[in-house]
Amino acid sequence: MHRENGMMFAKTCWQRGIRVAALALALSGLSACGGQSDNQKFGTGGTGGNGDAVPYTSGVYPNYKSLANQCSSAAAENNFLRSWIDDTYLWYREVPDLNPNGTADPLDYFDQLRTSATTTSGADKDKFHFTYDTDVWEQLSQSGVSAGYGAQWILLSAVPPRDMRVAYVDPNTPASSQGIQRGDKVIAIDGADAINGNTQAIVDTLNEGLFPENLNETHQITLETAAGTQYTATLVSQNITSTPVQSTHVVNTGTKMVGYMLFNDHIATAENQLITAVTTLRDAGVNELVLDIRYNGGGYLYIASELAYMIAGPAATNGKTFEELTFNDKYPTRDPITGDTLEPVPFLPTDSDNAALPTLNLNRVFVLTGSGTCSASESIINSLRGVNVTVVQIGGTTCGKPYGFYPQDNCGTTYFAIQFKGVNDAGFGDYSDGFSPSNTTTAAGTGVVGCSVADDFDHALGDEEEGRYAAALQYIASQSCPTAPPGVVEKLRSGNSIVDGFMVKSPLRENRILGGRLR
Hints:
10 helices; disordered C terminus
């Protein structure tokens, strides 16, 4: 996959997770990045027969391309994965050489083919090793379509007593038609106690209700509003089309014209929506921008490059690098997947049809972030900082993914393993513990000027009284932050410690749970 803009480059992605997101979900091409696979919802995947053994010599790796799509046995699939990882994985030297005949499930084998090293905070260096069923991945990455309800869940407490809320709802979906709103708390699913239920049968019921695997499944989900009113929604799973840009408006503060944009997905369909949104903000004469990417797990890197260009404009970005990618030491000068000579990814001034992009020409941008901000979303932050655009971060520490990969299909499964690292025009890309607002009170990632503010589920996204948006407006008016809540506001991922919350997306994507599955 490629786009043209005076040069070709692979649509690789930075999650999550995603991507999950992760895009990233990445949501093959510049793709969404990060996250965990569909077989890792709240439980574990099964195993299968290993079939016929394959030749194996320790330290000897056949060309992975010659092993592709030999699907007669798990051993044959494992053999492909072993050679593919050794050839393209960024940290291939840190991966154990495992006999492909020794594991009965390729997904289990793949999980073992990663580095066990940690970052300076003690987090896993590789948090973004995951899979998708290929048909699901292709549908999601290209159009944002997959089975679900259109409600995006966020998990504030992973273990009983659980606390799971609605982060946001896509328009024109089963969830929106049932009146489900941001902040609603999940009480029960198909009669199973979602807060205190603690048996495997209950966990299975929760999984099946939240993550329908088929179309036209019917599930009863009981929720509680912020006012304490409980109601039960009857949800029927459908093909859900994500709406990446859901809210754009302008606030006249008297001294500033402040634009707000909610941007949730770096998928292909986001391009036209972003262009429309930026055009609206430009025509309104905005001189400040609040970009809400707290739930944006990443996606296509070219989308991130276009948006960064539209924010900063040509004066700040002409001739500058949006992202420069480096692969493992086997490939110092060329991309191992495409074979292309490595060249910096520029700030893209045109869209996929080579039409000029609108620009805001801002020298400052406010970004609303959280632990669900990952991959290509972090690339926007890093790239703008690299060309001296001031980024003011409001919210919590981002996921920490200065890495990316090409989706790799084999035998109906698409695999994601870290293959490259990216740096900005100033040569910086070391933010594997995320970006953190400068007044973060706990262990933090790379510091960015701004305010640590907890997520506010009592107000709609885009409401001027919503905590993070209100803090941005306050900073614009007075250059000051609201008083940070005591203790931990947001913590880096570590085991099942969840503070700001990890996204539980439906459909599953890059940042579905990432660190705290229901148990």
